[in-house]
Please model this.
Amino acid sequence: MKKKAVVNNTPVCQVRMQAISDTMSVLSGKWKFHILGTLIEGNKLGFMDLLREVNGIGTKMLSKELQDLEMNHLINRNVMNTKPITVEYSLTEYGKTLAPLIDELAKWGVQYRQSIYGLERD
Model:
């Protein structure tokens, strides 16, 4: 006889799991954390600056990811009145609240790399 997994169906657990699902939906994909991390470090950056800084991303994918982040109110898109037109991206106030999360992910990644590969910190 198989044992059934015990699942916590309390309202608190359900709210927590929905919140995790929402977060993963908004931040899913290969590039969003890279873009957000770059904007945290760079403050305001143009499209080409982001393209250079986010190693390996293509123009179409960067454009799509920026649109997603803007739609979710995590970044601002500011079109400058210059010739040619310049677009500058920055984190919204709400987007800035992700900085501690991204910092913790980076710390975890450094510790993981050290534990698995025995590498020293730079």
Summary: The chain has a mean pLDDT of 90. The chain is about 60% helix and 10% strand.
